[in-house]
Amino acid sequence: MDARTLPDSEPELLARLSELRSALADQGASDVLKNALVQPSRHPLFDLDYRFVQSMPDSFDSFDLRGSCGHSILAAVEAAARTGMIQPLVAGCRVRVNVLNNGDNVVCEAEETDDGGTRFTAHFLCSPPRPVNDLLITGEPVTGIPFEGRTVPVSLVSMGNPYLFVHAAELGAHTVEDLFADDLVLFDRMTRLRLAVCRTLGWDTTGAFPKVAALLPDGPGALAVRAISVPSWHPTVALTGATCLAAGAAVEGTIPYLLSGVSDQPDSDLLSLRTPGATVRASARIAGGPGDRRLAWISVAEKQVDYAGLFLPAPTSEELSWLPLTA
């Protein structure tokens, strides 16, 4: 949505988004839970200002304004180009996005574009390069979380979004087949572990963050990944999830680092993430030496956005001048 047509104050903004959710539900689109608010950037180094609002499934007036959504950043860039907010996309062009929620700087590079959509590489930048240990939410590569009578080791990492990463075997999934099964027991365990982390950190248990992903080793420089979105299994892994995993694997001692075997491939910065729906590849650019490792950027390639045109829910105000649909 064009953020210029929406209120600036948070209470008025959320009230307007509640109205929009009701209108979407009337049009049979109640499953649209991600809102990308974009406008030409006020900052001279960026093309777009982007704000993410996660609609929570429990009620039309329930939202989470923390964090971000990588796929919706790409979708917003596609929509902004299609509707004239920025220049049309061509192969090789780069759109610089200022994420207002958390201060992230994201460069969306068009690999290939046609009438139906665009394939992107997304680059999440750290400027200046960030000490890798600063990515650890608790300051530790592994944190023990009290969980149903035992302590479960998890890695809590923040890059793109805050994530908790857990060895899937801790939750009963010992093989990739177990991990990728449509297993409601595993889903419930992952959800309960996420809530346990929220309680340990003092975070809101009704919000969307931290995200959660269960991991298994999948060969040198590779992980099998199962992640939860809102409110179900993620078909692959979120773009911010791939970014956060690549960041986590760059920090010695974390669960992504230990399971991926990246220490056995010192000359490669590529991390392969196998999911039920696709394999995603992410790379982390690290600056500095052994005692001063710093993250410069993370790149995730071959992310496709399909453009489906404009959708204007009939009951909404004319001020909501466009609502592009992308997938």
From TrEMBL:
InterPro entries: PrpF-like (IPR007400). Gene3D superfamilies: Diaminopimelate Epimerase, Chain A, domain 1. Keywords: Isomerase. One of its GO terms (molecular function) is isomerase activity. Belongs to the PrpF family. This is Uncharacterized protein. It comes from Streptomyces liliiviolaceus.
